[in-house]
Write a structure and sequence with these properties.
single chain; mainly alpha; globular
């Protein structure tokens, strides 16, 4: 399939027809237009050129199923994590505190070329299957929770208007559900991404980690991941909604603004939370060389211990290892997630509204 952003303008502007007297509607708004005296049967859906007095497309029909947000979120999450997966593999390696001399990289592009040349064409994709398995349900819960909490809290805080505080709280609460599902997948994924990883399949990695470290190993970094992702998502959602207010104040379905807002939000949030991501990577991968160099036997656990170890091994600069790769990964990933999510939300909402409008 071509990249989602290329499809969005095409689908967004598809004309909908309704065979009443052979007349074809020119826009989605015209297809559902009623005389001023009659109440509309469903929500009006804004697109470029529609009246700003109409209700925006984000206002779902009252009878809409939660599956609308969950479907849109699952598709967006899978694409977000898979399209930029090779860069994520590079980021994991660049965050290594004591990398093998053969796995030291100066840039993302150089790293990808070197990995492909020395380890094979498909090596940057190792672990992508477990990411897909985790990202679908994790993001379905994530976006459904976010939309529900955003509306509920906005009604309380700002009487139905947009509230940055509500957006931040909703994003943080959605993260609790997302990380509970995604954390085990992250552990397996990052162990398979590391240089000279002994794991070639997901099942082998899961069995080995469970046998040698116990089930708790899959959630060893959960508190650190939450500590990272709650501020990440709060910054992310606040920045996204703020940028939308500036460049898309009528909250129309506009793929370009969703892409730009998502990219900016992803970059700002990624850069701000890189130190926590470095600690999370250390807890997930349990780098033997790094831990033994500071006389740590057994397994490292706990956010405080991870922070201390990172500082011992790399100083302040250690907290920002892989920051460029992280920003490069997050910008397009977040842009893809938001553009795909907003498209599916628009498409599914439009379809439900048209079902309620008799032809």
């Amino acid at each position: 399939l071509p990249p989602p952003p290329l499809l969005l303008p095409l689908f967004a502007r598809m004309e909908l027809s309704c065979g009443v007297g052979g007349r074809t509607s020119q826009t989605a708004a015209a297809a559902t237009a009623l005389p001023p005296s009659a109440p509309p049967p469903g929500p009006a859906l804004l697109m470029d050129g529609d009246s700003p007095r109409e209700e925006d497309y984000e206002s779902l029909p009252s009878g809409a199923s939660l599956s609308t947000h969950m479907t849109a979120g699952a598709v967006a999450g899978i694409l977000e994590h898979t399209v930029m997966y090779p860069v994520d593999s590079v980021k994991t390696r660049m965050q290594s505190l004591q990398p093998d001399p053969k796995a030291q990289y100066n840039s993302v592009l150089e790293a990808l070329k070197k990995i492909i040349r020395t380890e094979g064409f498909w090596r940057p994709l190792r672990g992508i299957n477990v990411t897909v398995l985790g990202a679908g349900p994790a993001h379905a819960l994530y976006f459904a929770c976010y939309e529900k909490m955003k509306r509920t809290l906005s009604d309380i805080i700002h009487d139905g208007g947009n509230s940055h505080l509500a957006n931040g709280i909703a994003g943080s609460m959605a993260t609790l559900l997302h990380d509970a599902v995604m954390n085990p997948a992250e552990v397996v994924k990052q162990r398979m991404q590391m240089y000279h990883s002994p794991y070639t399949t997901v099942l082998q990695c899961v069995r080995t980690v469970r046998r040698t470290e116990g089930l708790g190993a899959f959630y060893r970094s959960y508190t650190t991941q939450l500590t990272m992702n709650i501020p990440f998502q709060a910054i992310h959602f606040i920045t996204y909604e703020f940028t939308q207010e500036q460049i898309n104040p009528r909250r129309q379905y506009n793929p370009q603004t969703h892409i730009v807002s998502g990219a900016i939000a992803g970059a700002v949030a990624a850069a701000a939370t890189t130190p926590l991501d470095v600690c999370k990577t250390l807890l997930n991968t349990q780098e033997n060389m790094a831990l033994s160099s500071v006389n740590i036997s057994g397994h490292l656990s706990g956010m405080a211990n991870a922070f201390r170890t990172v500082y011992q091994l790399g100083g302040v600069a250690g907290y920002f290892k892989g920051v460029r790769a992280r920003v490069i990964y997050q910008m397009p990933s977040t842009a893809i997630a938001w553009s795909v999510y907003e498209f599916f939300k628009y498409f599914l909402t439009k379809r439900e509204a048209n079902k309620k409008t008799p032809c």
